[in-house]
Amino acid sequence: MSALGIEVSAAAALSAAPSAPPGAVVYGDPFTEQLLALGARVARTDVTVLIGGPSGTGKEVLARYIHDRSLRAEGRFVAFNCACLPESMVEDLLFGHEKGAFTGATQRFAGFFEQADGGTLFLDEVGEMPLSLQAKLLRVLQEREFTPLGATQPIKTRFRLLAATNRNLKADVQAGRFREDLYYRLNIFPLQLRPLNQRRGDIVPLARAMLKRHAYIAGDLQLDLSAIEALCAYDWPGNVRELENVIQRAMVVADGPTLSAVHLGLDCALPAESQFTAMPWTNQAVSADLVEAPAAAPVSETKAAPSLADRRAMQEAELIMETLKASPTKTMAAERLGISERTLRYKLARLREHGLMAAGV
After folding, report:
1. What CA–CA distance (Å, rounded) separates 163 from 286?
2. The model's pTM
């Protein structure tokens, strides 16, 4: 539970489609909808927001969403990762320097505190900031002024601060790795993003948005039912970042207008064993025990033509059987198909269930 008595789950869904307007996000899960509603509400204030969540869940996208709906939307959005550079360079980039402040300073540099004046400063991975810089950041937040390196006079600043971390800052405070006073200065309005596997309703909408975003790879592709089932059954330890990598890789190996589970190559449990059942006519993943079995279809004397899904399934079965015949082992066959051996075993079991493969294969 957050300090405000609110726990918001959310957010790897926070990844904007390329055709969406600035600040738009793609989602299909009610938890993400709740998160965005809170984000839009706090955006109308100048309150500092601390965004928490595992790596790859979309913390910067949420920060941009808040900025784009704030009174500072016309100002700059300046993002900086506190973990990517040595301490001396972090200080220089944040505070800036005057010409001649140190060897190599041939001209004045306006630091990020100054660049974000009138706009938003987003400090990503703020928990990685060294203790000495934490004290200087605290002073800037308290006094709303800073002194560039080599300068003699402070400069006033009016930026709105958004911060993000994948660490437990409260535990870091207790361990002496993070200043307690800075923690309470940052943690005014916390928003907590949950991993992708805890809001599965976002997975398929995100995947479809990524297909559009990376259409330059293989054109306009669609997800078939097997791909949707595999996406919803997989655990996504790498969150949205992993999902995007999987989609791009699948687009490279795809040989038609659709992506199937074979192209995704995910090592996941059977969809029937999953807690969720993908519903292809929606962007949601619905609990399996809420899905009623369809009524029995009336018997018809006329044999219906195979559907597009049936034809795709037959083509996949043919590809698998041809690859098995040409491969000495199932391990090699799985490698040639671009899937894990576990996924191959699952597909073989499905083929045997439908009488498309002998039981001993």
Report:
1. 34
2. 0.68
